[in-house]
């Protein structure tokens, strides 16, 4: 059963990796075509739609999967009716808020684009939830097909019609195409007839289940995208465009690392939750591995991030070395933050990641303060890093308090991370002094070597390491026909 559940998660990881990769490719094409200012407007539209989408998400598709009676046709019909109502409400809100938002941002041309996004919200309400319902039987392939078709068709359309794209209004047409394909694919793959219905008792359950999710979505939005919201409110469109590009370039690998880590290691930790010594040993290995990945990723982005932006997006999107460094540190800390979250979730403690995201909002408050005071993009990103530090410390301490798990491995990985980052920054900014640069680079390499040895020590201390176990199980899943 454990292997079956883990095997079933492979299509989920595949669809997430595919959709994120196609989204990154799509944005690279658009950035090349539009330039920083129009990409700033593009990001404004994306943030507006994303915020409303998260705030209105009551999660009927998730209760459809979780509820014992979720397979009933009446349950699915009521859930689909809730989606339709949500779509209509979001459409009305977007149309009504179009002029005020455009006026607030000082860009009247945004009004018709925001209003047009109401059609996107309305069409999304017509999704057939059958591809979600089959997840009750651990069948995630339907979801993978629907999501990858939508992302693939949209990316292909952007590539084909690239020469006709000249403004950020392309976001409206891209979003419309994506949601139309998504809805058509959801109906095409369904095994049940689409119909709407309404049972008051089911609707009540859906609302009671969903409103905490909507509140949590607001917290998640602030934790993940609050920095960009601050930039939107305090900087010019071109600055937002550059910040959004740099942020996405650093965030996408971080999201993929976090999702793959969760897919591979959460089941391994969960099976050890009743054996404290084995659980602690495996957590040490994961902390050492993610610490090594975090510091390597951060150093790589710090030293080569602007070069990558220049190659992929163009030199117009390059940012200052200080901003790139702060963004690299921010994402490295998010990778580290996965360690206590995984440990907590393995013991069914969902409060820990929620509390961590709440603590992360301290960075958004600080970012808003410095951003609206005119301190610049670097100060906004630095404040975001401060929020990540608070969230990491709080998550580790909460794990110790609620689960009794010693956070020593987390502190060791974090110490090596900060030591490598500080020395790496000194090597990067040592100016014309070649001796100083070589010296700091050598010290940075020494810290990385210490992190590698720490990982090697934790892995070698057990007869069967967590990493080997996860890899062996993954091979077994593929051999057993998981995808």
Quick overview:
With 483 residues, the chain is mainly alpha-helical. The protein has helices spanning 2-55, 60-66, 73-104, 110-124, 130-133, 141-160, 170-188, 200-234, 237-270, 276-312, 321-346, 351-372, 377-403, 408-428, 434-460, 466-479.
Structure description:
- Mean pLDDT is 87; it is low at 1-6 and 471-483.
- Helix 1 crosses helix 6 (141-160), helix 8 (200-234) packs parallel to helix 12 and helix 10 (276-312) packs antiparallel against helix 15 (434-460).
- The chain is mainly alpha-helical and 483 residues long.
- It has helices spanning 2-55, 60-66, 73-104, 110-124, 130-133, 141-160, 170-188, 200-234, 237-270, 276-312, 321-346, 351-372, 377-403, 408-428, 434-460, 466-479.
- 82% of the residues lie in helices and 0% in strands.
- The chain has 2 domains: 1-234, no CATH class; 236-483, no CATH class.
- It contains 16 helices and no strands.
Number of structural units classed as domains? 2
Helicity level = over 70%
The oligomerization state is: single chain
Characterize the biggest β-sheet. none
How far apart lie the N and C ends? 17 Å
Principal-axes geometry comes out as: globular
The DSSP helix count reads 16
Mean pLDDT: 87
The low-pLDDT segments are 1-6, 471-483
* Beta-strand fraction estimate: under 5%
């Amino acid at each position: 059963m454990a292997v079956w559940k883990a095997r079933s998660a492979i299509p989920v990881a595949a669809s997430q990796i595919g959709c994120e990769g196609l989204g990154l490719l799509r944005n690279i094409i658009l950035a090349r075509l539009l330039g920083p200012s129009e990409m700033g407007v593009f990001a404004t539209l994306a943030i507006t739609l994303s915020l409303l989408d998260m705030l209105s998400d009551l999660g009927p598709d998730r209760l459809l999967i979780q509820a014992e009676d979720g397979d009933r046709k009446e349950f699915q019909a009521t859930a689909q009716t809730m989606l339709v109502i949500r779509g209509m409400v979001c459409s009305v809100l977007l149309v009504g808020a179009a002029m005020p938002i455009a006026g607030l941002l000082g860009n009247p041309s945004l009004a018709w684009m925001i209003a047009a996004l109401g059609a996107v919200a309305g069409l999304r309400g017509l999704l057939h939830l059958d591809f979600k319902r089959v997840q009750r039987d651990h069948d995630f392939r339907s979801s993978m097909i629907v999501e990858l078709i939508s992302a693939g068709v949209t990316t292909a359309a952007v590539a084909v019609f690239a020469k006709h794209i000249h403004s950020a209004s392309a976001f409206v047409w891209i979003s419309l195409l994506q949601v139309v394909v998504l809805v058509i694919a959801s109906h095409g793959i369904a095994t049940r007839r689409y119909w709407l219905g309404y049972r008051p008792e089911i609707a009540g359950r859906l609302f009671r289940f969903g409103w905490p999710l909507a509140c949590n979505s607001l917290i998640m939005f602030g934790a993940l995208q609050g920095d960009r919201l601050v930039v939107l409110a305090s900087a010019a469109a071109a600055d937002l465009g550059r910040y959004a590009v740099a942020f996405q370039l650093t965030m996408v690998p971080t999201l993929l690392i976090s999702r793959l880590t969760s897919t591979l290691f959460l089941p391994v930790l969960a099976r050890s939750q009743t054996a404290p010594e084995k659980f602690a040993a495996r957590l040490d290995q994961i902390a050492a591995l993610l610490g090594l990945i975090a510091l390597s990723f951060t150093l790589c982005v710090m030293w080569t991030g602007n070069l990558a932006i220049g190659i992929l997006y163009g030199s117009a999107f390059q940012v200052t070395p200080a901003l790139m460094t702060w963004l690299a540190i921010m994402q490295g800390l998010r990778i580290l933050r996965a360690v206590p979250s995984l440990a907590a979730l393995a013991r069914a403690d969902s409060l820990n990641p929620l509390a961590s995201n709440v603590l992360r909002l301290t960075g958004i408050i600080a970012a808003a303060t410095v951003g609206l005071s005119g301190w610049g993009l670097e100060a906004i990103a630095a404040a975001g890093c401060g929020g990540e530090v608070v969230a990491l410390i709080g998550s580790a301490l909460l794990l110790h308090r609620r689960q009794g798990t010693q956070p020593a491995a987390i502190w060791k990985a974090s110490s090596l991370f900060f030591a490598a980052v500080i020395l790496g920054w000194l090597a990067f900014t040592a100016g014309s002094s070649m001796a100083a640069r070589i010296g700091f680079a050598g010290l940075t390499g020494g810290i990385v070597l210490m992190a590698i040895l720490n990982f090697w020590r934790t892995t070698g201390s057990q007869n069967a390491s967590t990493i080997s176990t996860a890899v062996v199980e993954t091979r077994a899943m593929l051999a057993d026909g998981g995808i």
